[in-house]
Design a protein that fits this description.
Elements lengths: L1 E6 L7 H15 L3 E6 L22 H11 L3 E7 L7 H8 L10 E8 L5 H14 L3 E10 L3 E3 L4 E3 L2 H17 L1
Parallel strand pairs: 1-2, 1-3, 3-4, 4-5
Antiparallel strand pairs: 6-7
């Protein structure tokens, strides 16, 4: 199966990216092909309303490549930090670049990180609504972490919390069982 991880954090060091990396490794251990689309490294231009019906005709090649990745993925994991009570604008813009039914028949996992308290419902609930609007299926298991769940190195954060690791495995198991 092909798994697409979409990181909605553009922080230099990102808890969300570390969580997605951890989940991606769980899929890779099961011999699935994992692709990470990091919106910091591969940003998307603002969505063009005139391309909503057919984003494959978008003038920007990066958007067309992104649309192709989404269309050819079996499972998608959306990851975002908590920003002002919701998920990140860069992730919303990425999803806005897709066709109205881009997630039809696809299972989508939701993961997020908040700065201090475990408040994942704030960013994950609106993400779930967007997934449903794009005609996707949201996994029941979702993973919300906070900064205390990680250790820090010079270059990145490392997931340490055993409960978050178990929940991540549960998300992977759930998504593989429905596909």
């Amino acid at each position: 199966m092909k798994i697409l991880l979409l990181c909605g954090s553009i922080a230099e060091k990102s808890h969300t990216l570390s969580l997605l990396d951890y989940i991606g490794n769980l899929f890779s251990q099961e011999k699935h092909k994992v692709t990470l689309w990091d919106l910091k490294k591969k940003p998307l231009p603002f969505a063009l309303p005139e391309c909503h019906k057919d984003p494959t005709k978008h003038p920007d090649e990066v958007v067309r490549n992104f649309v192709d990745e989404v269309e050819h993925s079996d499972i998608i994991i959306l990851g975002s930090p908590l920003y002002h009570g919701s998920f990140s604008g860069v992730l919303k813009n990425a999803l806005d670049n897709l066709r109205y039914d881009a997630l039809r028949g696809k299972w989508v996992g939701l993961v997020g990180n908040s700065g201090s308290i475990r408040a994942d419902h704030l960013e994950l609930s609106p993400m779930r609504q967007v997934v449903n609007t794009l005609v996707g299926y949201s996994a029941q298991t979702q993973v919300g972490s906070n900064k205390s769940d990680y250790s820090e190195t010079d270059k990145r954060y490392v997931l340490e919390d055993e409960d978050i690791k178990k929940r991540s495995q549960r998300l992977v198991d759930e998504l593989l069982s429905v596909n």
